[in-house]
Amino acid sequence: MATPVVMSALKCLLIPVLCLLTHPNGISHVAAAVAPPTQPHILFIVADDLGWNDVGWHGSEIRTPHLDELAKSGVILDHSYVQPICSPTRSSIMSGKFVSHTGIQSLISATKPCGLPTNITTIAQQLKGLGYDTHAIGKWHQGYCKEEYTPSKRGFDTFYGYYTGAEEYFTHLRSDTVDSKRWTALDFHYDHGDEYTNVMDMNGTYSAVPPEYPDKYPNIKDKNRKTFAGMVSALDEAVGNVTDAWKKRGLFNNSVIIFTTDNGGLVHAGGNNYPLRGQKFTLWEGGTRGVAFVSGPLLNKTGYVYPGLWHVVDWYPTLVELAGGNSSDLDVDGFPMWSHLSNNITSLRVNFPYLIHNESDTFAIRVNEWKLMIGVKNDTWHPVPPESQLGQVELATSDNFEDGELLPEKKKKQPVTYLFNLAEDPTEHNDLSQSNPEQLATMMKELENMKHPYAPDICSKVAKSEKSNPKNFGNAYSHGWC
C-alpha cells in the first residue's frame, strides 16, 4: 500500500511507496551499525489511496499503531495537499513542481507513450549530487515506454517494483486493453544501472491481502471496507518492520521518516475521507487533503500538529535543504521548510493550485483560507456505511476524470463555480460564490495569475499503443516501445 524509496513506493490501491534515501556511509543493506554520517538518512513513504478517515490518529476504526506512534512522536501535517490521483502526485514529489508546470495532470497509462519529462531533474538526481545512495521500491508510475523514463535513469541506484499504476500485489500481474485486445502480464522488475531483470516472484495467490489481516476486523461487514482495512493493517505492519530494521542497524537516530498519501481514499474500493467532502479523482478536500507526518529524532519539536499549509511540492526543496544543499538554486515550486516543521514556525506557503487544466476548463486554487473551484463536478460526503452499502457506491460518478484523464466540460454552457472559506468551513458545506462577490473577484484574479506558465497535459494527448503489448517483451511490461 505504499512504496519505498531510499526513495520508494509500493502501489496504487493501498500500497506504501517507501522512499529510502540513504547516505553512502550508512547503506541500509549493511547489517553492522555504522557511525552516523553528517547527512541524515531519509525514508519517504507514499501510501496509495489512503483516505483521511483511514488512519488511527484521525479516529478511524482501522487500527494503525505503528503509524500512530510515528505520527504522534513526530509532527502531523494537518493541511498537507496532494493531487487527486496517483501519477500527478508522484510527479510533484519527484520534480518539486505543480502538475500544471510538468504536464502530468492526468494518470500515466501503461499503454500510452508518455512520462515525466526527462529535462526535469528529479529529487533522486538532486540527492545523488549531494552524495546520497538512492533506492526505490514499489510503485513507479512515472512512465516506462522508453529506458530514459525508468527509475534507474531518473536518479535511483536501484529499483525493485513495478512500472505501472496497479498490479496484483502477490502475483505481480496486471491487465490492459488496447483496441479491444486484452492481455495480462507480469509487471515486476529489478533494475540496477543498465541491467534490467523481470522478477518472476509469485508470493501467493492473494490479489490484495492475506485473510489474516481483514480477519482482524470482524465488526466490519462490508467486504470492500474489510479488505481495505486489512490492507492498511498490512501497510502499518510493514512500516513498523522497516522502522525496527533501521533501529537495529543503527540508522534511526540519524533518520527522517516522511509519510504521505498520494490522494484521498476511493469510496467504492473501501477507502474513506469523512468528514471531508469527496474522494479520489475529485478536487474536493476528500480527494486532495492528505494524511501526512514527518518523524524522527532530528526534529527539534515533536508531538504536535502543524497547522500551516503544505503542498507535496514542498518536500523536494525541504529534502535538499535537509541534506545540506542550496535550495535557492532549484527550479521548483516548493518552499524549503525543514526549520518550519522542526520548530513549529509559520508556513511560507499561502497559496497553491489544486489543479490548472486548460484543456478541460477545470480549475481549483487555494489562497490562504479561501478555495475557488470552476468546472469541478459535484460530489458529496461519504460516511462509512453500515453493512454492505459501501459496495453499492458507483465508481467516479462525480469526478472530472475517465480512466485517470481529465474530461472536457462540453455539456455545460457555463462551468459551475464554488467558493469556500476553509478556515470556517473545512468540510465544504457552504458555497459563498453568490454571497461574497468581492472575494470571488479577488480569487478570480489570483486564478489568472496562477494560469501562467502552463504545461499542456502530456498524457491525455496521446493514444494507447499496441506497441506496449507485453507479448513483445517476453510477456512482461517493459520499455522499448516509444
Please describe what this structure looks like.
This protein has 482 residues and is an alpha+beta fold. The model is unreliable at 1-36 and 387-399 (pLDDT under 50). Helices cover 18% and strands 21% of the residues. The chain starts with a strand and ends in a 32-residue tail after the last helix. Strands 1, 2, 3, 4, 6, 7, 10, 11, 12, 14 and 15 form an 11-stranded mixed β-sheet that branches. The protein has a 4-stranded antiparallel β-sheet with strand order 17-18-19-22, covered by helices on one side. A hairpin with a 2-residue loop joins strand 8 (173-178) and strand 9 (181-186). It has 9 helices and 22 strands. The protein has helices spanning 65-72, 86-95, 99-102, 123-128, 223-248, 285-288, 315-322, 338-343, 437-450; strands at residues 2-5, 16-22, 41-47, 75-77, 80-81, 133-139, 158-162, 173-178, 181-186, 189-192, 195-198, 255-261, 289-290, 292-295, 304-306, 310-311, 351-357, 362-367, 370-374, 401-402, 405-406, 417-421.
Helix content: 10-25%
Instruction: Name the average pLDDT.
Output: 87
Largest sheet entry: 11 strands, mixed
Q: Rounded to an integer, what's the Rg over CA atoms?
A: 21 Å
Amino-to-carboxy terminus distance = 29 Å
Secondary structure tally: strands? 22
Question: Which geometry do the CA atoms define?
Answer: globular
Beta-strand content bin: 15-25%
Low-pLDDT sequence parts: 1-36, 387-399
- The total count of helices amounts to 9
Query: Helices and strands: which structural class?
Result: alpha+beta
